[in-house]
Design brief:
The complex is a heterodimer of chains A (about 600) and B (about 240).
Chain A: H1 10-16, H2 24-35, H3 40-50, H4 54-61, E1 75-80, H5 83-87, H6 90-101, E2 107-108, E3 114-119, E4 131-133, E5 136-138, H7 143-156, E6 184-186, H8 199-205, H9 209-219, H10 231-240, E7 247-252, H11 261-268, H12 270-284, E8 288-293, H13 301-313, E9 330-335, H14 345-352, E10 376-380, H15 381-393, H16 395-399, E11 402-403, E12 406-407, E13 409-416, E14 422-427, H17 432-439, E15 446-449, E16 455-457, E17 476-480, H18 486-500, H19 506-523, H20 531-545, H21 549-553, H22 556-564, H23 566-573, H24 586-597, H25 602-606
Helix pairs in contact in A: 1-2, 1-3, 3-4, 6-7, 8-12, 8-15, 9-10, 9-12, 12-15, 18-19, 19-20, 20-22, 22-23
Chain B: E1 4-9, E2 12-17, H1 22-28, E3 52-55, E4 58-61, E5 72-74, H2 78-94, H3 109-116, E6 133-134, E7 140-143, H4 152-160, E8 166-169, E9 176-179, H5 195-198, E10 205-207, H6 228-231
Parallel strand pairs in B: 1-5
Antiparallel strand pairs in B: 1-2, 3-4, 3-5, 6-7, 7-10, 8-9
Classes of the chains: A alpha/beta (about 600), B alpha+beta (about 240).
The structure holds flavin mononucleotide, iron/sulfur cluster (SF4) (2 copies) and FE2/S2 (inorganic) cluster (2 copies).
């Protein structure tokens, strides 16, 4: 084996970020890349360089799943374990990987070469099953191709050699070179309508910031990240709040399971997104912007950095943008490190500040006191792209698409049991029937709208519309065919929320564990009729008292099953003999005693 | 315009001042809103969620939510009561709370909340997590089995003691309090007299060599339920 040159020293990594505690995320990520861990010893060094408390470094490192205190293997294989991947056969792929690498999941090989892990949705649900091999993404695996991949990795030790063909569109760009596909199935009239011209920004700079905000308000644009808050109004609040500095943050965390449309926007039209950010900056008076890019999309970072560099060179970023005196603005990319909750806007801000990704107490809202305590507008990638188009073509043009209170188009990420998974830009207001026709998912037994945090929709409700007031979605649409076990789906979603809860508040931290426990009982045929009420009360309490959107939505899947899929639950729980407690597992209760006495329990000797 | 205005709690008009939280305004008017992570001398934390009320139709934590003119607040309300019971139960099953053995029994705020809300047994299964005990310090011990992650020690150490001995690490159900040293508590600059040591509402941070100082019958919550000092009553247990 060839020894590579020594990794960059911890001191020089810290120095690269001016020994600044606000940049602890970047510092920790770079250290993880260089040393494959941020060990407790290294944490002490970092604390010294940054002149901070070591427990604060530990607090951050132990929060993010891509940062580890223990050394990982040289090659970390992370298999996406979300629902669309399972539907596409990721469990068989898991077995193949495990066999070929000779490793269980959550294990590192003795020679320190490999670590095998599962990870939540990596944003490739339309080309599942997918894995991350270090930062390289490999999609559409089969057990055979997974075996082959593992053998190649053992042979070459080089994940980059796995990519033989590049994906469509700009995925083949020299700075991306990825096999990921855009699968852009439907180009709608707003975002994907044509080339990025830059005319939106030009037009904005000819008007006052107030006029720009008015245009965005008139367009009716509502946030595309899920919550649907009017974008122009958010900019008004941010502009009106007092502060020495203002910031615009682009939310490219895209962590909601089954969502990947921002990935396609980032790949195909980052220029439009940067233009939208620049317009936002002008409208609210910001001089600095950040793009919070999820760690899973690291493979796009160099490409995005380059696009920024080109903009600086053409006077679209930097000082006196496009000759507009006094309008200075620049953008930096902040990488995430594997935490779904960091998509929540106040947690995103925490993470950008170099803290663990805990959401913050509200009020104050980010528009009042956000990043570094200054007024901050957090906007989704798609919202910013739409804003740029609105400034280019006008508010009325935009409002001409979609519906009155849900203007414009929405970009959907479609996955699961359908003929044409991928990305669709549709006008708001389409019914689920129309949607299923479009993607070829006609025999769906249910559609999960809005990701794990969204809603499970029964066929009797397929007449409902995709609008902010009816079925709101951040873009994730998972189609479940007749074979899917919806109880398994619920268990998987809850598993995800338990894994991703920040742990700050009681209901989300403890309540989701209890919801999961009870759903697992039902999954294992040990449900009881009392479970309906138990689940309903528990779900209601978690929703009603959680501190952020994660806990406020995690019980949705359980409530949807209770409300709309009761017969399914009943078929699993069945009619019980009132004298039996199905939840009591006699065999496992007796296991220790059997082990101690060295014989089987009487009921096991005679029975069966 | 003065900075004083009226809010309504459970049908009763009370005075509030600008900057006051709902919990503070209620307390000043003799209305007790159950709470656990809140401590009057520390910044609000908003983690236990027990102080949840319905304000203008929406649930929020009264320890963090500023009172606003004409706010309608439901504190004594069946839905809110159900939530609080659930939260208290969750805290019990999420840790390992063996009240009969605990030095804090009778003076523990979690236990007292359980009594106040009439909880006898929990409907939830106990999760029996594996948690550590740190007994390295000569005067203080930390038993994570009983920690409710209220963050009082974290805030008190940082904001009152000026030390930053405690901080949260990990996330989700694994979240726990860690100490600022390369090893355990004995290697920090914590002192027995620190605010951080005294504010723990449960038996998670305890002084060594002094168990069960108050006999049963003379403990803080033996005769009157938690909240009595706010309500000024004789402590009937009605809810
Ligand atoms: C747990 C959680 C995760 C979220 N993840 C994202 C995300 O990945 N991307 C996003 O744009 N918004 C996400 N949001 C919504 C953001 O909090 C915020 O509303 C949004 O970024 C605002 O942008 P918009 O108004 O343009 O939609 C998430 C919210 C929660 C509660
Ligand atoms: S609901 Fe609470 S524990 Fe869950 S992620 Fe939000 S703040 Fe954290
Ligand atoms: S140790 Fe005590 S004060 Fe600190 S978080 Fe735990 S319960 Fe709260
Ligand atoms: S990439 Fe696997 S579910 Fe999203
Ligand atoms: S007392 Fe308000 S959240 Fe704990």
């Amino acid at each position: 084996m060839i020894e590579k040159s020594l990794p960059e020293s911890v001191g020089s990594i810290c120095k690269k970020y001016k020994n600044s505690p606000d940049r602890l995320m970047d510092i920790a990520i770079d250290i993880q890349h260089a040393y494959r861990c941020v060990s407790p010893e290294v944490q002490l060094d970092v604390a010294q360089f940054l002149q901070m408390d070591v427990v604060d470094v530990q607090s951050l490192v132990t929060f993010y799943s891509f940062l580890t205190e223990e050394e990982t293997g040289k090659i970390v294989v992370r298999l996406c374990n979300d629902v669309p991947d399972k539907l596409a056969g990721s469990e068989e792929v898991a077995v193949a990987l495990s066999c070929e690498l000779g490793l269980d999941f959550d294990e590192t090989s003795e020679d320190g070469q490999f670590t095998l892990l599962r990870t939540p949705c990596i944003g490739m649900s339309d080309q599942a099953p997918a894995v991350m091999v270090n930062e390289i993404i490999i999609t559409s695996l089969t057990p055979d191709s997974a075996r082959k991949m593992a053998r190649q990795l053992i042979e070459t030790g080089n994940p980059y050699k796995l990519v033989k063909e590049f994906g469509d569109g700009r995925n083949s760009n020299d700075l991306i070179k990825s096999m990921v596909n855009n699968n852009l199935q439907l180009r709608g009239p707003v975002l994907f309508s044509g080339p990025v011209t830059g005319r939106g920004l030009e037009s904005a700079l000819k008007q006052t910031p107030k006029d720009v905000r008015q245009i965005v308000k008139d367009s009716g644009l509502r946030g595309r990240g899920g919550a649907g808050f009017p974008t122009g109004l958010k900019w008004d609040f941010t502009a009106a709040a007092e502060g020495e500095q203002r910031y615009v943050l682009c939310n490219a965390d895209e962590g909601e399971p089954g969502t990947f449309k921002d990935r396609v926007l980032l790949t195909e039209m980052p220029e439009l997104m940067f233009e939208g950010m620049t317009i936002a900056a002008y409208a609210i008076g910001a001089s600095e912007g950040l793009v919070y890019l999820r760690g899973e999309y690291f493979y796009l970072k160099a490409f995005l950095e380059h696009a920024l560099e080109l903009r600086r060179k053409s006077g679209l970023l930097g000082k006196n943008i496009l000759g507009h005196d006094g309008f200075d603005f620049d953008i930096r990319i902040q990488l995430g490190a594997g935490a779904y909750v960091c998509g929540e806007e106040s947690a995103l801000i925490s993470s950008c500040e170099g803290l663990r990704g805990d959401p913050k107490n509200r009020p104050p809202f980010p528009a009042q006191k956000g990043y570094k305590q200054c007024p901050t507008s957090v906007n989704n990638v798609e919202s910013l792209c739409a804003a740029a188009r609105i400034l280019e073509h006008g508010a009325e043009w935009f409002a001409g698409f979609g519906e009155a209170r849900s203007t414009g188009t929405k970009v959907l990420s479609v996955s699961g049991d359908c003929e044409k998974p991928g990305v669709y830009e549709i006008p708001n207001g389409v019914t689920l029937y129309e949607f299923l026709d479009m993607c070829g998912g006609r025999d769906a037994q249910a559609v999960q709208v809005g990701g794990a945090a969204g809603h499970l929709i029964h066929p009797t409700e397929f007449g409902r519309r995709l609008t902010f007031d009816d079925l709101a979605t951040g873009g994730s649409m998972m189609v479940f065919g007749p074979e899917v076990d919806l109880i398994d789906v619920a268990v998987d979603f809850l598993d995800f929320f338990v894994e991703e809860s920040c742990g700050y508040c009681t209901p989300c931290r403890a309540g989701n564990v209890l919801l999961l426990e009870r759903m697992k009982r039902i999954q294992n045929g040990r449900g009881e009729t009392g479970d309906y009420e138990y689940l309903a009360d528990l779900a209601n309490s978690i929703k009603g008292t959680s501190r952020c959107g994660l806990g406020q939505t995690s019980p949705n899947i359980v409530l949807d099953l209770l409300r709309h899929f009761r017969p399914l639950l009943e078929s699993r729980i069945g009619d019980q003999d009132r004298n039996l407690r199905a939840s009591f597992d006699l065999d496992s209760a007796l296991k220790d005693a059997e082990l101690a006495t060295g014989r089987k329990s009487v009921h096991n000797q005679e029975g069966k | 315009m003065t900075d004083s205005f009226t809010i309504n709690v459970d049908g009763r008009d009370i005075q509030a001042t600008k900057g006051q939280t709902i919990l503070e305004a209620a307390e000043a008017a003799g209305i007790y809103i159950p709470r656990l992570c809140h401590h009057p001398e520390l910044k609000p934390h908003g983690s236990c969620r027990i102080c949840t009320v319905i304000a203008n139709g929406r649930s929020c934590t009264s320890c963090t939510q500023p009172a606003e003119p004409d706010m309608e607040v439901q504190n004594n309300h069946p839905q809110v009561e159900m939530w609080r019971k659930q939260l208290i139960e969750m805290l019990f099953v999420e840790g390992n709370h063996f009240c009969p053995f605990c030095e804090k029994s009778g003076g523990c705020e979690l236990q007292a909340l359980g009594y106040r809300h009439g909880l006898t047994a929990t409907q939830h299964p106990h999760l029996f997590p594996r948690r550590e005990i740190d007994a390295t310090h000569p005067d203080i011990m930390v038993d994570h089995n009983r920690c409710v992650l209220c963050g009082r020690c974290v805030r008190a150490s940082r904001d009152v003691d000026g030390k930053r001995v405690f901080q949260f690490v990990e996330r989700g159900p694994e979240k726990r309090v860690a100490v600022n040293s390369d090893a355990k508590l004995s290697r920090t600059d914590v002192d027995l007299t620190d605010k951080a040591v005294g504010v723990c509402p449960v038996g998670a941070i305890l002084p060594k060599r002094q168990g069960y100082v108050a006999p049963v019958g003379a403990r803080e919550f033996d005769h009157t339920p938690i909240g009595t000092s706010v309500e000024g009553g004789n402590g009937s247990l009605e809810v």
